[in-house]
Design a protein that fits this description.
318 residues; alpha+beta; six-stranded mixed beta sheet; elongated; five-stranded antiparallel beta sheet
Length: 318
């Protein structure tokens, strides 16, 4: 009897079981109803962790109640990262400008050359200073080109407007799948915000549903500002962003000294590069089920020896 390597679909996130012969796990709620033609994504890797993208239909096995279903098609499907950087350029950022530039330059240098980057500033209002591009010369010029401005930062507005942009994109079927990543650098300066709490909640909920990743750094940048994590986290920026970061599987840091940016942001860049490499090395599997409706004890496995993998419904890897 053949032994395959099972991919477990777990509730919430969709993650694999990495040991051959282990149970398949529980089906996520999102899979409760599936059409007769069913699609999912697989990221496979060999024992050394190298992505494997030449899977054939015979390499993927899907069964329901132990009955194999027809794997009709396996095709490469990249789901890349696209990164938006939002920088608090209010007057409070002036003393941290050198660290801003050094950290952002290190982050960009750590990203693969095909990662698209957008840059916005948040004072005196969210403003795009670099439209989406992969041109590293333009990105570096933008990183070195913004300056502190008068006016309060609009941190919350930047989050809401990022969410609204994604909502508009969702109506455009021509846009290929991708993972939106928001990186925010913020001071603890008193912000200005014209949105109501319900609007902010709606925007945050959409970011979660869209599977965006929100990453936030809140820092003290001027002499005399609060330096404890507790005080920084109690700022409006911390209060607003921490639950969003957690819900979107992002990263949050409170910094007492902006000098940490020069090493922290390059670290983030390397981690995002690793995730991007996994995201672009996937296959989309199309299965012709014997019948539609509720999935019946589904089990997804890799038949090729020596491979591990992750299976997701939308190509957004954990």
């Amino acid at each position: 009897m053949k032994r395959y390597r099972p991919l477990a679909i777990l509730a919430g996130a969709v993650v694999i079981s990495q040991m051959a012969g282990t149970p398949a796990g529980h089906v996520a709620t999102v899979l409760a109803q599936a059409p007769q033609t069913f699609e999912f994504f697989v990221h496979a890797a060999d024992a050394a962790g190298k992505p494997v993208t030449d899977l054939r239909p015979e390499d993927v096995v899907m069964s329901e109640n132990g009955v194999p279903q027809e794997v009709a098609k396996v095709e490469r499907q990249a789901v890349p990262l696209k990164i938006t950087i939002a920088v608090d350029n209010s007057e409070d950022s002036a003393e941290a400008l050198v660290q801003y530039r050094a950290g952002l330059a290190g982050l960009v240098d750590g990203l693969p050359p095909d990662v698209e980057v957008t840059l916005i500033t948040t004072a005196p209002q969210p403003r795009t200073v670099l439209r989406p591009t992969t041109d590293r010369t333009q990105i570096r010029r933008a990183v070195n080109g913004f300056a502190p401005e008068q006016g309060r930062p609009r941190f919350t507005e930047a989050i809401v407007e990022f969410s609204e942009r994604l909502q508009r994109e969702a109506r455009d079927r021509r846009i290929a799948p991708y993972v939106p990543v928001l990186i925010m650098l913020s001071t603890t300066a008193v912000e200005q915000n014209s949105y109501q709490p319900g609007e902010v909640t709606k925007a945050a909920n959409f970011l979660v549903a869209r599977r965006a990743r929100v990453n936030v750094i809140v820092m003290s940048t001027r002499t005399g500002q609060a330096t404890s994590s507790e005080t920084i986290n109690a700022s409006m920026q911390g209060v607003i962003s921490m639950p969003i970061v957690k819900a979107t599987n992002g990263r949050y840091e409170s910094l007492a000294a902006s000098s940490r940016l020069s090493t922290l942001l390059p670290e983030w860049g390397k981690d995002l590069a690793t995730l991007h490499n996994r995201q672009i090395n996937q296959v989309r599997v199309t299965v012709e089920r014997a019948k539609g409706g509720e999935l019946q004890n589904p089990r997804i496995e890799l038949a090729r020896p020596g491979l591990d993998g992750v299976v997701t419904i939308d190509g957004h890897l954990p």
